[in-house]
Amino acid sequence: MEQSIKKIIPYAKAYKKNIISNIIFNILFALFSSLSFVALIPMMQVLFDETKKDVKKPVYTSILEITSYGKDLLYYYISEITKQNGAQFALLLVIAIVIITFLLKNLFNYLAAYNLTFFKNGVLKDLRIKMFDKILSLPISYYSEKRKGDVMARMLGDIGELQNSFFLIFELIVREPLTIIFTIAIMLKISLKLTLFVFIFIPISGFIISKIGKSLKSKSTRAQKESGYFISLVEESLSGLKVIQSYNAQSKIKSTFYDSINRIFKLRVAIGNKNNLASPLSEFLGILTIGALLWYGGKMVLIDKLPNGQPVLLASEFLAYMGLAYNILTPAKAISKASYAVKNGLAAADRVFELIDQEDHFYKATNPLKLETLNSGIKIKDIDFSYNDKDLVLKNFNLDVPKGHTVALVGQSGSGKSTIANLLTRFYDINKGEITLDNINIKEIDLKSLRQLIGLVTQDSILFNDSIKNNILLGKSNATDEEVINALKIANAWEFVSQLPNGIETNVGDAGNKLSGGQKQRLSIARAVLKNPPIMILDEATSALDTESERLVQDALENMMKNRTSIVIAHRLSTIQNADQIIVMQKGEIIEQGTHLELLSKNGMYKKLVDMQSFE
């Protein structure tokens, strides 16, 4: 619990004014909540004709006696008003005092809640920003091990749980305890004997409630993890709907989904039932205390007498005392209910900060260098690399790409071609060896600066649910419409974009699904064209295109790659015949290299691959 609170403190500091205001208004609320019942005593004294006829004006002695002084002063004025204007006028005055007291109590309650709401939502906004920043900055390797649904559950569900439960702790430590303290202080003043009698029941109630709430945190953690798995299932089912339906796999997917939803159901019911038990249990224990008070206090009013014959406790004081005793029930009930909810919030806070505090384990240069352009070229030296410490994907790999040259990587699936693109862009860090740009290790180059030098077009055309223009502007956010259209023309995409109802303002749909595969890929290429980087990495960039589109895009790519340093990962060998150098890879190693004609003359693996594709 302490760790979670410590981690939230830095976020809370930005809302210091709201926290201080909330505390001040909560103190005033607690004070007037208690005084509102004390104000009823004079009214009942007038009703029961208990006002003393000869009351002397009290003398102020010290701050320690301020409560007694205030009460005695009020009694004095009520006695004087009753004598001068009659009981009816005194009653009206006392009712006005009661109304004003309750008005102030509720006003301070609202002002405390207003500041808490501002603070609570502000912290949650900042947490979401921090978490989203972390999500975008963590390396790709992190997400190869994590379900996207779990990350989404932490962003949406767990932070929402913090709002609903964890921040109740601020009421637990200020408002409700102070209400109880002020109320008990007044109760002690009215009757020490009766209040000590109440204290016998409070520890018993607290012990019973705490025993029930003990297992809540572990159940909440399990429920939140299961929610993450559940969201992943939904996300994967939506993404793979075509596969599920084409393979008639609905029953299998449904079975997995039903298992998860039933686990969530059982956990949520168990948590909900324990939460639901908090309020009635605390109220029942409270009413037991009230019942005992009625018996013991009633005896003091009706039976026990002082030496002068007066009852030990006046009826008006006893009724106000009962109101005060019941006034303890509301905050006590709130504390017991909130303490249960806070258990859920603690589990959510742990999961939120687990992601926010996640370390990326990437090497970070002490003084990273910023490169504006590429001057000499790219060198890959003696690289060994594996994903997740498994078998090596690249073994002792070396490659030299001079500035302005185009190097193509070919080979069977799993030979390590795309891994080169992942390492150049530092989606992953290498295990051994180094990659240099202009003889500078890329680990020493500022990551943003490094990626600014690279244009990447992947096999999967990744588009966002936005307009064509905004998708392409990712390459250069301040580009004009003319520049966007020019990039589309170079990518041979303007022909179909210009025919769309809203042109470049047309929305592409979720993941670009309103467009064909070839159209999506040409927009991805246009995005890279607009960025205009000195290094181009094309990872199977034409694999999703039909023959006609491929020819159009291939011409555009060749124009774009002129005077640029390019690494082309290719499946279709017809697209890389003009490359300055072709690297043939097998199981992470280079087995052949040379130009298209040189490799054909060697009659090796490259010749085999070309012959195989000529029959496709």
Automatic annotation (TrEMBL):
Stretches that traverse the bilayer: 23-47, 89-107, 165-188, 194-212, 277-297
Keyword terms: ATP-binding, Membrane, Nucleotide-binding, Transmembrane, Transmembrane helix
Gene3D superfamilies tied to this protein: ABC transporter type 1, transmembrane domain, P-loop containing nucleotide triphosphate hydrolases
A GO molecular-function annotation: ATP binding
Record flagged with keyword Cytoplasm: no
Main localization, broad class: membrane
Coiled-coil region(s): none
Subcellular location: Cell membrane
Domain ABC transporter: 378-612
Membrane topology per record: Multi-pass membrane protein
Nucleotide-binding recorded as keyword: yes
Domain (ABC transmembrane type-1) ranges: 23-344
UniProt cross-references to PANTHER family, sorted A to Z: ATP-BINDING CASSETTE SUB-FAMILY B MEMBER 10, MITOCHONDRIAL, ATP-DEPENDENT PERMEASE MDL1, MITOCHONDRIAL
Name assigned to this protein: ABC transporter ATP-binding protein/permease
Lineage: Bacteria, Pseudomonadati, Bacteroidota, Flavobacteriia, Flavobacteriales
